[in-house]
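To close the section, here is one more complete example, presented without commentary so you can practise reading it yourself. The ligand is NDP.
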Amino acid sequence: MASQGPVNPSHAMFDLFVQAQTCKDVKHHFTQLCRQLEIDPKDFGSFYAKLKERLNYWKAKALWTKLDKRASHEDYQQGKACTKNKCLVLGAGPCGLRVAIELSLLGAQVVLLEKRETFSRNNVLHLWPYTIYDLRELGAKKFYGKFCSGSLDHISIRQLQLVLLKVALLLGVEVHTGVEFQGLIEPSGENGWMAKLQPRSHPAAAFQFDVFISAGGGRFVPDGFKHKELRGRLAIGITANFINRHTAAETQVEEISGVARIYNQKFFQELLNETGIDLENIVYYKDDTHYFVMTAKKKSLLKKGVIKQDYNDAEQLLAPANVDYEALCNYAYDAADFSTGGGLPDLQFAQNHAGRRDVAMFDFTCMHRAENASLVKERRGKKLLIGLVGDCLVEPFWPLGTGIARGFFAAFDAAWMVRSWGNGVPHLKVLAERESVYQLLSQTTPENTSKKYAAYSIDPRTRYQRVNLSAIQTHQVQHLYDVEKTHPSFKKQKENSAGGSEELLKWYQKHTAGYKNVNVKDFTQSWRSGLALCALIHHFRPDLIDMSSLDESNCVHNNQLAFSILEKELGIPPVMSPNSLANTDQIDKLSMVLYLTQIQSAFCMILSFKNHHALLLNPILLSDLFPQTLASPVSSELDPVAEVAPEPDTPALMANSEECYFCGERVYLLERISAEGKFFHRTCFTCARCNITLRLGGYTFDQDTGDLLNLYMSILGLRSLVSKFQLFLFCFFNIFFVSDFSTGKFYCELHSEELANGPATSCEVGH
Ligand SMILES: NC(=O)C1=CN([C@@H]2O[C@H](COP(=O)(O)OP(=O)(O)OC[C@H]3O[C@@H](n4cnc5c(N)ncnc54)[C@H](OP(=O)(O)O)[C@@H]3O)[C@@H](O)[C@H]2O)C=CC1
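Output:
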């Protein structure tokens, strides 16, 4: 009744804003509220403070208490960490909105663009415990009373978007819907980085920014980033949403949090007998809609006429032209009706954003993942920090329950990156830190992340259990700094390196001149036979090599000889195998330059130390400088003044070559990769269970020695049906690379999930 509502118009407007159930209504009531309170939302710096001051309404105050608590976290530096930063966020999906909230708490000006006008995703997302905690602390329950009530741990995407949109607006984020981002516009004249938008005349097109966060969803890849596609065996997913009228009869019907064929043969056989529908599994969640997601067998889809023609290629198979939409609706309807025992009366499809019946079919074993999470572009001296979050960074393999949880993690990590940027941390360090954290993202599970949800902040150390912010070094992210070729710093860098290589080449020419079959004219082919290296060694230490015994055609032997001497006497490990140098199609120039620079440094020091005999009086210093030389019997024959080590400023080559962690063979610098402090051949880096090749950042390492998977398998019989369903899913979709924390072994995503989660994790149903 009208008389029971608040009398103060701004209170009434606030209530309407809080209760609004569409994106349009939220924005409309927000504008009305701002007008009523005479606050300009563009005044982002003081907007929230003014709002609090002018809306002294008990309902609002309860919300302010929550938001104040979050804002008071030390990471935000009292909202001053990023006051100079202007951030453009692309995408008002859950992840774009979540990162926008964090950026505004850091004090940045945040403009968010979304091409859709409406929030119409009925699909339901499973929430990890921390996401529930996080959303509660942002006031989710005040905006959506039913939020995770009782044992519910899911929410429809559109409800989640509405909650986050409201919070973002209250914190001063400028949200524009119906605007498409079409690319970056490089700085020119007085202008900094801007965005090309559709419509072109949109006011946000004038926004100049120094941070760009892309949360544009799974298929959106901003310029400069590379996506990898991971594809498993075909698994055809169908999602369907039906209107929930919230009647007593509907309330009675129980949710199905996951049932898989291998654990309930009878159910699926009956379904097949009665309807001709053949499924691997089915999930049903009751939310804004009745939401069903199921995996259907291709054969039954063909038989029921849902798929018109059989193709091996999944894209062709599921292309809209090859799908009978009517038949698909019937298929989904019958499956939903059967699995709920006909308990949902008058099943009627909800509408999707296109105003059609909300049913979709897709190949959900195809997953994209960005190779890196960040990038810095510099043009005309203006730097732009770019970061990816959400599906745009890592698309979830939804049956594993990872999507929104990892999406929020990435949003926090991106905010932490922007905080460093705002604090003036050098750009390469910002990138290195962000990429160090990104390596861990695919490994996160509810089990291996910190349980102290209240302590979670944008600081990765509060969430990831084993994070090393310096795991990746600045020199490893040079390629993520994209500076224009005409920029003075680029030119200088290039000149220096060119000049440096020329000097190096001349030095080698001088010290190998006159040797038979040795002609140093480059950093690649000239070194293939091994004679040039042997000649150099002979030049400085003729006693170590008999040049007359060497045969130019015996390249592998020559290389082996030179590598051994250089390693033993100077402590410089080879960067590749003797065979690789002799036979590879393309010798890596950069690696050779680095290797030869090491050798040059070492021999130069020998020469220079000839005049510094005093040094030899200090044996401790000597042993520090020349460990190999002093330890080796050969070295005792060396001229003492020659006992020198390479310069310490080339750490990469200082490390000795290692044995491969997997095969035990020697692994050379050029061919080696490392993870968890272990070195190995790229080809040896495979999952301990399924042998699939792993990638860095996409594995889990288990330190213990026992294989927990066996343990989980053995206790499987004691677990619930849902648990079995999960394990079944993990086995069924055995392709994705993650990792685990239980065995001294490396695991792919699939098997790590099995290990880390065990069969107890519930499945995610959003997609
Ligand atoms: N159908 C489903 O159930 C889906 C579920 N999800 C789940 O949602 C969660 C978070 O996803 P999130 O990473 O936020 O991504 P989302 O896909 O939810 O959001 C990205 C948004 O950005 C919009 N967008 C894309 N390109 C542009 C552009 N050039 N200009 C303006 N807007 C653009 C997208 O519109 P548009 O979609 O029209 O391209 C979309 O609304 C994950 O858990 C994920 O699994 C994500 C996608 C689909």
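Once you have examined the tokens, check your reading against these statements. Residues 90-91, 93-96, 113-116, 121, 123, 125, 157, 180-181, 215-217, 220, 390-392, 396, 403-404, 407, 766-767 surround NDP (CB under 6 Å). Residues 611-656, 705-743, 757-767 have pLDDT under 50 and may be disordered.
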